[in-house]
Design a protein that fits this description.
Aminoglycoside 3'-phosphotransferase, Chain: A, domain 2, 9 strands, Phosphorylase Kinase, domain 1, five-stranded antiparallel beta sheet, alpha+beta, Aminoglycoside phosphotransferase domain-containing protein, Aminoglycoside_PTrfase, 2 domains, 14 helices, Kinase-like_dom_sf, 46% helix
Length: 333
């Protein structure tokens, strides 16, 4: 990043943060980087990203969320061509960290997550976000075929169209806005705010209009932490009751979207290790696999369960170690 220092310094000068002290914040699975800026009486967050359309998507969704009364970070400065954005600092009360400190609060926090999703889903999605339909949901599974270790390549080729077909069997529901990467590391608790505004939202630039359970699955089947089965069951029931939906239809959709997301995440985490040199993601694969197998146990998903068994190798210790040894050695494709 040293080559970008002059443009970063100019950007900070332009928006009044030239003298700020910078400390690095934890990054994510993307090419983005975050610094916290400190000056007397104030802090902000500097997002450093590849220039391009992603910055504009973040800006548009950020403005929409704020206009609806949700807590997206206010944008204090923006230069899309430089890939730089200055954001409101939500602080350090990340939901994942709070749950590690006090696991007994899990039920209350996830109830708040579900209430936020219910508030969000009462609104029609903005017309500028792309649609993630049955075909798109199936297409995302191709990442698994491309990167995750396979038992049978031909069987792996059949997974994407099979997911598309099974999505078509779900009870039809109007699409809602999905933030997509909605989990405990992307939520900051803001104690000074009320209702759904207590949830500070991060990492929503890939938002889409899709099936209503997508973000419920994302939150309750977190690749980075285990949510208790009792909480998962309670929040699925809460969501179905609040929207007067058939609980069995929600269970079916939750299992299928959960399996679809699990397949895609296996591919993403394998790529992050093999292509991008991030071996830590291998450690998360067993949890994702276990969640996926739980979803595949649903009676309506027998064809997908059989397809996954034929296509993919289970992540035993030997397979995970081979992935670590190959970390960063595969070119992007």
């Amino acid at each position: 990043m040293a080559a970008r220092d002059p443009e970063i310094e100019e950007f900070l000068r332009r928006f009044g943060w030239a003298q700020a002290r910078r400390t690095a914040l934890a990054g994510d699975a993307s090419a983005r980087r975050y610094d916290r800026l400190h000056r007397p009486g104030a802090t902000a967050v500097l997002m450093i990203a590849p220039p391009g359309e992603e910055m504009h998507r973040f800006q548009r969704i950020d403005h929409w969320l704020l206009a609806q009364g949700f807590s997206a970070p206010r944008i204090l400065g923006f230069d899309a061509e430089a890939g730089l954005m200055l954001l409101e600092d939500f602080g350090d009360d990340q939901l994942a960290r709070l749950l590690r400190q006090d696991p007994k609060t899990e039920a209350a926090h996830y109830a708040a997550i579900t209430e936020f999703l219910l508030d969000l889903h009462r609104l029609p999605p903005p017309d500028f976000v792309p649609s993630l339909d049955d075909q798109g949901l199936g297409g995302l599974v191709a990442l698994t075929r491309d990167w995750y270790p396979l038992r049978d390549e031909t069987a792996a080729e059949r997974l994407a169209p099979l997911v598309t077909q099974l999505c078509g069997d779900l009870a039809p529901l109007p699409p809602v806005l999905s933030l997509r990467d909605f989990h405990a590391e992307n939520v900051i608790i803001l104690p000074g705010r009320v209702g759904s505004a207590r949830l500070g939202l991060l990492d929503f630039q890939d938002a889409v209009a899709t099936h209503p359970v997508y973000d419920l699955v994302s939150a309750l089947q977190d690749a980075r932490r285990d949510v208790s089965p009792a909480v998962v069951a309670a929040e699925k029931a809460r969501y179905a009751a609040a929207r007067d939906l058939d609980p069995h239809a929600i269970d079916h959709a939750f299992a299928l979207i959960g399996a679809q997301r699990g397949l895609r995440i296996l591919g993403i985490f394998a790529r992050l290790c093999l292509c991008m040199g991030k071996p830590g993601y291998v450690d998360l694969i067993p949890r994702v696999w276990t969640q996926m197998q739980h979803n595949l146990a649903h009676d309506a998903l027998v064809p997908l369960r059989e397809g996954v068994t034929q296509a993919l190798l289970p992540p035993d210790a030997a397979l995970l170690e081979r992935m670590r040894q190959q970390c960063g050695q595969h070119p992007m494709r």
